[in-house]
Every structure is written in C-alpha cells, then in structure tokens.
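Appendix B. Raw example, untouched.
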Amino acid sequence: MRELLPNAIRGRDKPVSTFPGGEIPVSSGVRRFAASAGFTLATLILATLSWALWQSSFVAAKGVPAVDLHYTPREVSRTPVGVLREEGETAVLEAAKEVPRIELRWIKPPPARYAHVSLDVSAQGVVVGNHPWEDARIFLMWFDHQGKMAEGYLPLWSGSGDQGRQTKDVMLPLARDGTLPWLIIENRGSAGVFKVHSFSMQPAELRPGLGWMLALLLLSWLGLIGFALRRWVVKTPVALPRIAIAAALWVGFAWVSSFPGPWIPWHPLGKPFPVKHLDGSTIPVPAPKPVPPPAPEPALPPVAEAPAPAPVPVPAEAPPAVATIPAPAEAPPTVAATPEPAEAAAPPPASPSTPETPVAEASGSTRQAKPARLGGGPVRWFLNHLPGLKRPIHLLAFAGLTTLIALLTGSSRAGWPAFALGILSEFSQWAYGFGSDGGDIIDLAFDGAAVLAGIAVWHWFSKLLAKWQREPEAPVLPSPASDA
C-alpha cells in the first residue's frame, strides 16, 4: 500500500499495490472511476450538510410568543377592516366594496431580527380587480417614523381564481433599523373568497455557534472544488495558489447566486424549518408592579386665633364743638395682579409608528436610522430595480467567471465548472420555494452562451499574449551621426 501513493502522485499509468497475495496492477481507468466516485460522494455529503446547516440556522427567540390569528402580543396592534367572519379556526375574507383585511402593526421595535412564517391559505373564485396586484395576498412592509413606506416589501403569498389549500414555510427579516413592520392580509379582488386557515409568525434569531460551522463548511467546499479543478480542469501543471483562487471564485459565486440565494423569502428544500412557535397563551405574563399609594400631604400647622379687639373707651361728655370734616385719606396704590403661569401643554401622544429608539447625531439632533437593506446584495438590487438587465447580468456574470477560471487554470475546460454553477443556481431557485418555469430554460441557455463567450475571450487573450511573447525585438538602426 505504501507503493501506491508515490506512484499515483508521480502519475504512472499502472501503479502497483503490494498485498499479501501478490502484486495487483491498478489501471488509470480504475483510478479515474475511484476519483469520480469519491468526488460525487463528497459533493452529496457537503450538499446535505449545507442544506442541514441552513435549515437549522434559526431558533425561536427566547420568551417571545408567535403572532397568529387568535393571539396578538402587546407590542403588536391588530386592526380588522371590512367584513370578516370566522369558520371555526379559519378567517374568511370575502371581496366587498370595503376591502376586507387584517392589519398587524408593530408599535415597538421587534424583539428579534428574523421571523419564521407558517401559513395555510386557499382562494375560491377570486377575480383580479382593476390592477394586476388587486387579488388575495399577504405581504410585509415597513414604515419609518414619518409614516413613509420604506424601500422594499416582501410578498408572502398572492393568488387569484380557485386555489386549493397551499402551505408555505419561510424565513424572513423582521427588524430593520429605523422602521416598524406592518403585515397585511387582504382580499382586493372584485369577487371571490380568500380563506386563511392558519397563520403564525414566530420571531427568531440565529443559532449560537453558527459562525464556526459555516466557516468549516466553506473550507470544505473550497477543498473539494480545488481538487476538482486540479483533477479534471487543469491540463498543464499550475501553481497551487492559482487553483485556490479559482476555487474561491467558484465558491463565492455559488454563495451569491445559489446559497442561500438572493431571493427573499428563503424556503428550505424538503422539511420545513424546525423553529418551534411559542403559544402566547402558555407564556406567563408578569403581573404589573403594584403602584405605591401617594405619600400623605404634611399636616398644616394650627392657625392661631386672633385676639379679641380691646373695648373702645367712651369719652366723658364735653361741650359741643363745631364738627369738622376730615380730609379724605389717600387712595392706596394700585397693584397689578401677577398672572399665574399657565400649565404646560402635555406633549402629543407618540404615534404607533414612531420607534422608541431614535439615533442621535453628532449635531445633537435626533433622527431615525436609515432602514437596513433586505439582503441579497447587488444581485437582488439589480433584479428589483433593473429587471430588464436580468439576461445581460447572466451573460456578463458567467462569461466573466469562465474567463477568470480559464486564465487561472490555463485550460479551456473551465467552461464545465461555470456551466455546472448555472445549473446549481437554477436548482436553488426552485429549492428555495420560487418554483420553475420556461424562463429557467432560457436562463440556462444564456448561461451556456456566456460560458462559450468566456472561453472565446480566453482563447483570444491567450493568443494575444503568446504573440507578444514570440514577437522579436525590432533591430536598432545605426544613427547617421555614428556613421560620420
């Protein structure tokens, strides 16, 4: 067995393995089969671990109950609008002139950054209204302290016509800086019935220790892709750092485009997220602290009684005198009464949409923080703001990736890992709950064309570089001054 490894490293066609029974030659075909089987097995194992890690990345926020159709925490305001009725545990929203809806608005910042939503809905004869978006739907949006809608909202479900019972299990961002979430369940169709059989939103947070597990997973993917590039892509010996850079490009591109994907909500493949929803009725509510009675006012000191006036002495009788009228006494000076200060006006009550944690600026004034992005990076930004650039983005991204891997590995086989990444991206879009349609086939066609374009660019660049290296230097002609 010790002779097998050196021979395999040297690249001999038939390495010999020594066993107790004799020498058994190992052909190159057996080695290729063993390498392919081992790579396939390792890929399946890492893919399974990636799925398991993503599915178990979240846990319910400790002590925070879920919001559902029948329980609303104190930090959430529920507002039913229009005619709503209940059929057992099901909320029924029938189309009417006044749009029936249920509004769940947070009046305080959410206690967790993420939320797990589990819903079960159906629709019967819902007719789309005057606009394409006037149907039965559930969506989440955010408002800032001024009551303006923040950029970006998340559609959780929408449908029209006859829709059988559909369940959905998603993870989504809940808390965004400077905003408060607002969830709306409504039926804007001109006719039909929208039924919400169950709905629950559980605030969640990342599982402790997720960072180091994710780091180990990424290192494992880097090693596996590096092995594949060196084994099946590289034709001539290439330095290991170049292969490592090419593998890092592939893994980074896969992270941005496939795992967990630039799409929100995120949906797992297979089983739902194992996030336990806490029933608010089972969580003990702390009793309010007793308000101490006001302290008694201090007793006033007793008021001393005024002494009785002394009797007026009666003068003895005297001869009558001429009566004189006394001069009128001077009028006392007039003192203007000082007006009592008016009571300060009570501050206006805080709006339900005003967060309680303003962010202080250096100038001393306060303002709300800018809403955080919903995630997904530049890919999601382009798809949301410039939907017409979806196909050009496919072309540029995969052509650039193919060209870079070909330059690093020095091989035209770099198109295969790039095209495999395109297949992985489309598969992830289906796996995270966004379905598949004919557009995915068109995307794959664009990816294939981009891969061919990338290989063509690499060939052109390689020929240009070789031409520069082979071109002899121009002869130096003697100057006329030297001849003289």
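End of appendix B.
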